[in-house]
Amino acid sequence: MNRTPIESVQALEGIPRIAAYFIGRIPGLPLALERPEAMTLLAPQHQRILEQEGLENFPLVTAEQIHGKEIAIVTGATTSAIRGMDALITCTRGLTLGIYIADCAPVWIVARDGSAGALVHSGKKGTELGIVPLAIEKLLKVTDLDCQDLSVVIGPCIRPPCYEIDFGARIQEQARECGVLEIHNSALCTACHPELYYSYRREKGLTGRMLATLTLIP
């Protein structure tokens, strides 16, 4: 990945009527702060960046992210993060799903015809709980798709030797075990690239958050 704050998820660029982005470290923004204070500074920056990509008319829907396995079906805009959830699924066009990241993995699960998608927050705990297989199962239940119709992308996350467990690799195995054939693993470590990414572990909890997004374009 390059050094710009926002990057298109290249593995998904060929899918019609979707936009998938990853916003990394924002240069010059001092974020050696606890999460609430950091997010107060980041929120308007993220909104500005998404507007620059032409997504200003698509409300951002986010999850509370409690390192669990609960998954929400999103059908409309919300005024706050959806409580108790670590994954979001939608078949509704005109919404942007968002997941915040600072070492855990963002996982995009997208129908290759652009008709539906999920965005998952999966760190050590979420991976142990199998949130990605659960999200795949739930996405298939609410659509007419099967697992071979999906593309899965695992974004930057903390990896060995910076972390003792390679949950990014385990997520890839889980997706394959579900029967998904098209799986892309960035293999990038958030803790190894301080110029690109925020890292909760490297920065001892006082840091910002990246934002992964998925939009079904009307």
Describe the protein in words.
- The chain has 218 residues and is an alpha/beta fold.
- The chain is 21% helix and 25% strand.
- The chain is built from four helices and eleven strands, in the order E-E-H-E-E-E-E-E-E-H-H-E-H-E-E.
- The chain has helices at 35-52, 124-128, 131-141, 167-177, and strands at residues 6-8, 18-23, 60-62, 71-74, 87-90, 96-101, 105-111, 117-122, 150-154, 182-185, 210-216.
- The strands form two sheets. Strands 4-5-8-7-9-10 form a six-stranded mixed beta sheet. Strands 1-2-11-6-3 form a five-stranded mixed beta sheet, with no helix packed on it.
- A hairpin with a 5-residue loop joins strand 7 (105-111) and strand 8.
- The mean pLDDT is 95.
Identify the notable features of this structure and list them briefly.
CNF1/YfiH-like putative cysteine hydrolases, five-stranded mixed β-sheet, 4 helices, 21% helix
